[in-house]
Every structure is written in structure tokens, then in C-alpha cells.
Amino acid sequence: MTADHYVLPKLANIPADVIAICDYERLAKEYMPHGIYEYITGGAGDDITLNGNRRAFDAIAMNMRVLRKFTQGSTAMTLNGEAFASPLLVAPLAYQALLHPEGELATVAGVNAVNMGMLTSTLSSVPLEDISAQQQTPKWFQLYLQPNAEHTLDLLRRAEQANYTAIVVTVDAPVSGLRNRQQRAGFSLPAGVVAANLRDYPQAKTQALAQGQSVLLNGLMADAPSWQDIQWLCEHTELPVWIKGISHPQDALLATQSGCAGIVVSNHGGRTLDGLAPSITVLPSVRKAVGDALPILLDSGIRRGTDIFKALALGANGVLIGRPVLNGLVVAGALGVAHSLTLLQQEFELAMALAGCQSLDDIQADCIHLTT
């Protein structure tokens, strides 16, 4: 596969029959080679967690309240003292040059158009500084802790100097998940698509193993981050540090004790350990563990505005949007990103209106109930 890997030019206009996120999912397969499609769309193993994320949202019903007064309707929220017009943020998405010649810069243009926050990935195909220079909305940086602490610290300083306002450390992928779908498709990164932020950091040397030791358990995992690394990071920056990939209440408590400013409940979109519980299912227990001490974002499986409503009702302050953004990007570039996010925002506002909630604070546990 070469750098010239795009199947069709991006649409200049949105087709009339693209009216929901599922329509972008339908079109996206036509706009990328099979290998890239499997890399973007697939989960780990047998896609149990990937598919479970969607089933879990569908098993939650909403309650309608009627004849409620709407005098000051708003979807605004505040995180870390920073104002957001909407509880929707774009998730950290790696290697966007796979889907568009401008990569993350096209996504930023779409995000700017709809005034939503975005997290830039450590594995972005455009340098974090260039992305920040173009972004006009709240901008956070997603950090993968590097094997070399000096490289981690350098990434942190670069993010600070580029005016990012929060650091989000992803902790649920110390090693890559078993991506069988992309393996079967023979996916590999095309020439020219690289992790631009890591170009200047040499690869860590492989640890020597004794006879009979496991490459994974005794090698790769020996260098994996720990809670001490999170504490170290918090001590080395004045920016709020969030932790992404929490699904267990005890880990949520450890995040609080380590100095984290917020939590992202996530199973990595079903791309790490197959068989994990859906993110929306574990959200209530994480919220119960930390109480009101920390704000919580949720990702994995959101495809409708009603999903956002359900997440907030179960304890999230906001959500991260992943694959829907990528599908919009590959189909119609910045326009597709803006349109996808607008669809979700409009659906969310409709859910609020019909459920009788004029602000995010009105969305409480009594707004939903679980079905069988």
C-alpha cells in the first residue's frame, strides 16, 4: 500500500440521504482500501466488546417529561474551569492522514466550524504544534507515556508550549490489542503516514530476556507505565492531567489519589482487550467510587445523540466521539467532520427537549431506566 491510498476524492457536498451517523458508516467503506477500513472499523479479537458497546446503549431506555418550561436552554459545560459549548469532544484519533491528505488539520477545520473541543493524539500524523496553531476551540493533548522518561517530558513541554490546556494520559493500551481483522486484511501503515510527534525519539532498546521468559509478560510489560508514573507526570506540570481508559472503580480511586484532574471511562472502542464490559455499563460504578470529586468523560460506542444523553444521565460530564469523526473525514473531509458532529449535537438537543431537560444539570439518573 502506498501513500497514494485514497479510493475516491472527498465529497464537496453532503448527499441528501446522509442524515445520521450510520449513513457515514455506510459510505465510508467505499472511500478507503479494505486494510484501512478494517484498521479503523475493527475491534480486538471477535469484536465482542466492540459490538457490546452498542448493545449496551440500546438496552437503556429514556423517560419523557412533558410540559416543562424552557427559558434558558443550553448545552454548555465547564471542565477544569474551561468553558465548552457542548459536552461533545473529539477523541484522540491516530494517523488521520490515512483518511485525508491534510490529516488532523482537516479535522481541526471541521471542529472549528462547530465550536467543539478536540484531543490531539500522540500518534497524530501532523505535529502537535501545527494542529494547535490551527485549532480555535478548547484543545487538549492525549499522551502515551514513552519508555524513556525524557521523551515523555519533552512531549509534555511541547504540549505546554503549544498552548494545550489539559493532558489526557491513555493507560489502557500498554500493549496493542489482538486486532484480528486488520491482521487478516494485511494492514500496515502506508509510506508517508507516520507518528509525526515521535520522529525525534529513538526506539527504546529491547530488554534482554532470560531463557523461558515471555516477550510480553517479562519484556514489554516490564516497561509499561505504573501509577508512580502518573504521579510523576502530575508533579511535572501545572496543566490538569486526566487519565483515559478507566473501567474499574478501584482504578478510579487510584486516579484520584494520584492527582488526576479527571477520568475518561473507556474500553478503547473495543480495540484492546476483547470481552471487556461496555463503557456505559461500568460508568455508574466509577461515578459512585469517585463521587463528585472528579469530572468524567465517556467514550466507546456513541452513535446517536440519545447515547450522549444516556451517558450524562449515568454520571458522565461529557463524551468523546471517535469513529463517527473518522467516517465523516474520509467521506467529506472537514465538511464531513463538521456535519457528523452537528448531527450528534442536534440529536442530543432533541433528546434534551423531549425529555424535558433544558440544561445538562437536568439530565439525571431518573431520566433513564435499564431494559432487558
For this entry, give a set of tags.
eight-stranded parallel beta barrel, 372 residues, single chain, TIM Barrel, two-stranded antiparallel sheet, alpha/beta, 12% strand, 13 helices
SSE layout and pairings?
Layout lengths: L20 H8 L5 H8 L6 H11 L1 E3 L14 E3 L2 E3 L3 E3 L13 H11 L2 E4 L7 H7 L4 E5 L5 H13 L5 E4 L9 H5 L30 H6 L6 H9 L5 E6 L2 H9 L4 E4 L13 H12 L5 E3 L6 H9 L4 E4 L1 H32 L13 E3 L2
Parallel strand pairs: 4-5, 4-11, 5-6, 6-7, 7-8, 8-9, 9-10, 10-11
Antiparallel strand pairs: 1-12, 2-3
Helix pairs in contact: 1-13, 4-13, 10-11, 12-13
Folded structure, characterized:
This protein has 13 helices and 12 strands. With 372 residues, the protein is α/β, with parallel strands linked by helices. The protein has one domain: Aldolase class I (TIM Barrel, Alpha-Beta Barrel), CATH 3.20.20. Helix 10 (249-257) packs across helix 11. The longest helix is centred in the last third of the chain and has 32 residues, at 323-354. The termini are far apart. The model has no long low-confidence stretch (mean pLDDT 93).
How do the strands of the widest beta sheet line up side by side? 4-5-6-7-8-9-10-11
CATH topology: TIM Barrel
**The CATH C-level class name:** Alpha Beta
What is the residue-mean pLDDT, rounded to a whole number?
93
Structural class by helix and strand composition: alpha/beta
Quote the distance from N terminus to C terminus.
45 Å
What coarse outline follows from CA principal-axis ratios?
Answer: globular
How large, in whole angstroms, is the Cα Rg? 20 Å
CATH homologous superfamily classification: Aldolase class I
Helicity level:
25-40%
Find the count of extended strands (DSSP E, 2+ residues): 12
Largest sheet: 8 strands, parallel, barrel
* Spans where pLDDT lies below 50 across 5 or more residues: none
Order of helices and strands: HHHEEEEHEHEHEHHHEHEHEHEHE
Oligomeric status:
single chain
Number of helices: 13
CATH architecture descriptor name: Alpha-Beta Barrel
* Estimated share of beta-strand residues: 5-15%
Tell me the domain tally. 1
